[in-house]
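Q&A log
Question type: sequence-to-structure
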Amino acid sequence: MSSRAAVILAFVLVPSLSMQAQTARTVRDGVYTAAQATRGSAIYKEKCASCHGPTLGGSLAPPLAGDAFASTWGGPLSAIVDKIQATMPANAMGTLTRAQAADVLALMLQTSTFPAGRADLSSEDAALKAIALPGAQTAAVRPAPAGGAPTFPPAGNMAQLMRGVLFPAANMIFNVQRYDPGQPPPKTNLSKEAGFSWVDWGAGVYTGWEIVDYAAVALGETSSLMLTPGRRCENGKPVPVNDPEWIKFTIELSETSKAVYAAAQTRNQEKVSDITERLADMCLHCHQAYRDKRVSRTPDDPQNRAARCSK
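Response status: OK
Response body:
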């Protein structure tokens, strides 16, 4: 090899090796300082402890340390800082600076017993992307075995699934108690000034009865998602997918959705209104066992979330 070729090869290899070394860095390499974790502790006590617990072990919201946290947030630290800065605290989202978010993350790493180092954890995106938290998430899709189908990990926690699918779908069905799906919707429902409404979904695109049909189907399709392995509740507890009572309520959800769909096919408002009583009972059965906890004196106290998804 000529000397000129060797020099060119060196210029090609050195940056490549340097980049490889940067991306290979993990939180085990001492990426924060004890002083930074102390700053993070002060922020955490003021902004975070009421939801995530005084020791980061979880309460109303999931734990922020240990295996449960790493299994969800394993990967580049930039994603964690982005999450903290943009969505925390829940009652004042976006009020933390990026430097404060990095300080809180330093506390989280310390609580997870990762070693401290000599330099603060940077809040710069490029630096955070070069550091990984071990325990990466399950692959988005698991390849299908021979003759089988691929499997997917849960995309959200149980509260997100309930509020994103079951809550709006059930509201569309309950709305039949007041409005005949066969009649045109009131004009006020279509005004831009009225804002978004669950029960006006699809107005002007699909007929009222079609919307009821789709809502019943959505309820039924959610049944299998209630049993997805690995899903967690809003408070971080595992969804009890193997609990016989949880399975019983899931079957009830499936059967009720079929009954609602059958009633909707009659295109009779009274028959669908009647079936909504069964739908309400179905929701109540599961909520009484797994959701409506009385940790505090009032049923609507947020502290009750800490006991959800357990009997």
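Response note: The chain has eleven helices and three strands.
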